[in-house]
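Re-run with default settings, no changes from the original entry. Doing this only to confirm the output is reproducible before filing.
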Amino acid sequence: MPKLEPIFPTLKSATAYNEYVRQAVQAALNDPRLDIPHEEAKRYFALKRATLLQRAAPK
């Protein structure tokens, strides 16, 4: 099997991605909805993780 060379992002793609991230962060900062409390977010993702782990468990 031939050795694969790493693919490095071009300056154009890196710049485009950077702009995308900046816009996404700004949109989140401008979002008028109420913040979700940290503990609520932790519970939500713990439940989601447990569900996915249960689904992936060998039977």
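DSSP finds two helices and no strands in the chain. The mean pLDDT is 87.
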